[in-house]
Amino acid sequence: MRQYEVKSTVWSNPRLWAVSLGETLAWAGLFYLFPASLIRWKLHFDWSISELSGALMIALIVSGITGIGSGKLIDKGLGRALMSGGVVLGGVCLLFIPMVSSLEEFYILWAVVGIAMGACLYDPCFAILTRHYSSEAKEPIVMVTLFAGFSITFSFILSALISSVFNWETSFYVFGVLLCFLAAPLFWIGIPVDTKIKPLAARIFSESKSLVSFFRELIMKPIFWGLSILFTTFALNHIMLISQILPLFENKGVSSTSAVL
Question: What residue range is the signal peptide (predicted)?
Fold first, then answer.
């Protein structure tokens, strides 16, 4: 694979602008739109907050499992198709969520959204950037993270605005269209074609060492469990704070629109 020369500043790289904007939309639509819509779902479906929150838990579990396959696809040079296809899959699911009539259907759709998360959020994105920019990937990753940090503000404000003018269903249609017709092309443009035949990471899965034996050795290492517990704790803390902040405001008598602002 042809290595890309990192310029003196990442801000002049149009590919990174495309990836950064695409990642911002992906996070806004696939992750933060859930907590932004929680109160509206409670009123519309008459399901409890705990029942609704179960869908996000399912999505995150599926996302973690999907990440294993995403890594293998990236190693095979399919990162561009992975992220573009993943965000389209997520966008299509958002278009169907307003049509659900049961909690089971709701869970199934968010499980599929979890597949999309595992295909196009931070983990695969950073893996692709590291693969292309090698030791100089720090600045591109910082740029993408900086942009995507605004996704929570974008998601909460846009969904609140659309819901107040129309309804929450319309907000999902808007985000679904944004993911399918804006985020996906941005990923396709921003992620170059990968022509590397045998990357270093792929040696782990060579014929002499099966996937089963790799995981057997991995789970025997204490550092694996330590890092797993650490990152899981951080993720749960973030998820609980973000997903429950609007219900907490509601209990204090603050409207969802005022809470977002």
Answer: none
**pTM of the predicted model as reported, rounded to 2 decimal places:** 0.80
Residue given tokens 């907050």 in the structure block: 49
Q: Which helix (H) or strand (E) holds 136?
A: none
CA 229, 243, 146, 26 torsion-angle sign? positive
Asked if residues 133 and 91 have their Cβ atoms less than 8 Å apart, the reply is no
Q: Count of residues for the chain?
A: 261
Q: Which amino acid belongs to residue 58?
A: I
Dihedral angle at the C-alpha atoms of 85, 86, 90, 95, nearest 10 degrees?
0
137-170: per-residue pLDDT in tens? 788 898 999 998 899 889 988 998 999 899 999 9
151 Cβ neighbours under 8 A, 6+ residues apart: 23, 24, 25, 26, 27, 28, 31, 32
At position 203, the amino acid (one-letter code) is R
What is the set of domains in the chain, with CATH numbers?
Answer: 13-198 (1.20.1250.20)
pLDDT in tens, 31-71: 999 988 888 898 888 888 888 888 988 888 888 888 888 88
- Indicate the angle between helix axes 49-75 and 122-133, nearest 10 degrees: 20
- Interval 211-256: pLDDT, tens: 566 667 767 777 767 766 776 676 666 666 666 666 666 566 555 5
